[in-house]
Write a structure and sequence with these properties.
This protein has twelve helices and no strands. It is mainly alpha-helical and 307 residues long. Helix 1 packs antiparallel against helix 12, helix 3 runs antiparallel to helix 9 and helix 11 packs antiparallel against helix 12. The longest helix is centred in the N-terminal third of the chain and has 50 residues.
Length: 307
């Protein structure tokens, strides 16, 4: 009997500790969850519900919407040429982000992850574009691309070439925007990869070096597999960020020329807000929301379910 007393006491102490932990967790939930839910409802759920409601009306934003049109806003949206261009541009931005921006960020992260002399300086330099406000970055690059007084025009003038109005050319404006997107956001993904690389134990690399593994073999069989969760997270951020791209494009091109650089969000702004077609803008917002939600849920439940 005496030998069983310590075991019983341990079980009792464990149960008491579990109840205390559950009580503390319940207290935290009661204190912090209702305000968070209230703010989320006021600033996310209700605006989304209103946008969905207005999308069934032809409404200019004044008074109460009364002209019910059903799914005509959505029908016009699907058949609108500018929407098709916007969707293609978003897909192009996603492709460039995944195929050019992320590999560039990964390559720089691998070079700068080690504690080398000057590595911190280069990290800061490459990360500075991301710190810069999107509007400011757009205005800076608008000046760079200016065909009369911009840096690009001055550089072309050194070779005797005529000034190039690249942002006014439907064929090249989107590529100018893509270059700015890569420049602006690759530093963010680089820092994500550096954080992931620094979390990998150096013992793996030492063991590979002792076994005679080459740099390519080390990258392929150690670095990339162990960095896979961070790569998947970076792709997730890149795709959602590409779908919501707005602040950078407005000062650059505002969707022009001839809608050639429209994205889904600038399309919503220019055709829904600026033209006071709030019902049509609501339809665009609903479609964009569904695209983001479907991607996020599918991606998280498949590729990131174990991360």
């Amino acid at each position: 009997m005496q030998a069983s007393l310590p075991k019983s006491a341990a079980i009792t102490a464990k149960s008491t500790g579990r109840r205390t932990w559950l009580g503390d967790k319940a207290t935290v939930i009661i204190l912090f969850l209702p305000p968070a839910l209230l703010l989320f409802t006021l600033f996310v759920v209700l605006p989304m519900g209103e946008a969905a409601y207005y999308s069934f009306f032809r409404w200019n934003g004044y008074g109460t919407p009364t002209e019910f049109v059903g799914f005509k806003n959505y029908e016009f949206l699907v058949n609108h040429r500018a929407f098709e261009i916007s969707l293609k541009n978003n897909l192009l931005i996603i492709a460039v982000s995944i195929l050019i921006q992320l590999p560039l960020a990964l390559a720089l992260a691998i070079m700068l992850a080690d504690r080398l002399r000057g590595a911190y300086l280069f990290r800061m330099i490459f990360f500075l574009p991301y710190v810069l406000a999107d509007i400011a970055a757009g205005l800076i690059w608008r000046f760079v691309y200016d065909g009369e007084y911009g840096i690009l025009a001055g550089f072309m003038g050194l070779f005797g070439d005529q000034s190039v109005h690249i942002l006014a050319d439907r064929a090249y404006a989107i590529y100018a925007v893509l270059a700015v997107v890569v420049w602006k956001y690759f530093g963010f993904h680089m820092m994500l990869f550096i954080a992931g690389l620094q979390g990998i134990s150096r013992d793996y690399f030492e063991a590979a070096r002792i076994d005679g593994a080459t740099r390519w073999q080390t990258l392929r069989y150690i670095t990339l597999p162990m960095l896979a969760p961070m790569i998947r997270l970076s792709i997730f951020f890149a795709v959602l960020g590409s779908l919501q791209l707005f602040d950078l494009i407005v000062p650059l091109t505002n969707g022009g020329p001839s809608d050639s650089t429209q994205t889904l969000v600038t399309y919503l702004y220019n055709f829904g807000i600026v033209r006071m077609q709030i019902g049509f803008g609501g339809a665009i917002g609903v479609v964009l929301f569904l695209i983001c939600v479907v991607f996020a849920v599918t991606y998280k439940s498949t590729l990131m379910r174990h991360d």
